[in-house]
Amino acid sequence: MEPEDLESRTPTAVRTVFGEHAESAAEFVAMLASHGVERGLIGPREVDRLWDRHVLNSAVLAELIPEGARVVDVGSGAGFPGIPLAIARPDLDIVLLEPMARRVEWLTEVVETLALSVSVERGRAEEKVVRRRIDVADVVTARAVAPLARLAQWCLPLVKPSGELLALKGQTAAEEIERDRSAVRKAGGGDPRIVRCGAAVLETPTTVIAIERVESGAPGVARKRGRKKH
């Protein structure tokens, strides 16, 4: 995609969501449209839908995140939702957690190119050594990573007590909640609820399942860490 074509396809919502950081968001989209496709991070058919389906869809999650929060984005992949969040909300302390080396390399390049204050870590959320290394966060995000039951088991141990897991989901969100409600509670989560983000700027708002961390998965460990100041 040529720069002039990219500019002509930029939705007016971009300025609303990203404000003074809109140019950085456009640069990220340009990187995805070229290098992202070449490296197999996104499919060619996704290029025309990068803004609405991926970048803006991820960035509006910022509506649910408190100022200055520490955020761990699990399974960042091509950078969603962590990179758009970091662009829109530079006040956040964001860690991108990704197990695949080639994606970690890509995320590191994006962070350096856009001069984002973001940490990139390689690993899986379910690994105890990874949990110890990155510690707990106020908010854990995930997009297209796993079904809700597995996601809660992997991610809730990374959430501080009273913090939240925010899982970006699609039309099956309500079905996932009904199916996996007991598994979520077993993993230390409260009652899952559905939240819609970006209704004022997106034709199709982002569907999020929000789960509060109410219990510690490992007795005496998560709560102790939850009092740690960052």
Automatic annotation (TrEMBL):
Which molecular-function annotations from GO does this UniProt entry contain? Answer: rRNA (guanine-N7-)-methyltransferase activity
According to its UniProt record, this protein's enzyme class is transferase
Per UniProt, which keywords does this protein have? Cytoplasm, Methyltransferase, rRNA processing, S-adenosyl-L-methionine, Transferase
Task: Detail which positions bind S-adenosyl-L-methionine.
Answer: G75, F80, A125, E126, R143
Per its UniProt record, what Pfam families does this chain match?
GidB (PF02527)
Query: Would you tell me the Gene Ontology cellular component terms?
Result: cytosol
Q: Which SUPFAM superfamilies match?
A: S-adenosyl-L-methionine-dependent methyltransferases (SSF53335)
Q: Which domain of life is it from?
A: Bacteria
> What EC number(s) is this enzyme filed under?
2.1.1.-
Query: Where does the protein end up?
Result: Cytoplasm
Q: Which NCBIfam families match?
A: rsmG_gidB
Briefly state the protein's biological role: Specifically methylates the N7 position of a guanine in 16S rRNA.
Q: Its family?
A: Belongs to the methyltransferase superfamily. RNA methyltransferase RsmG family.
This protein is called Ribosomal RNA small subunit methyltransferase G
Q: Which gene encodes it?
A: rsmG
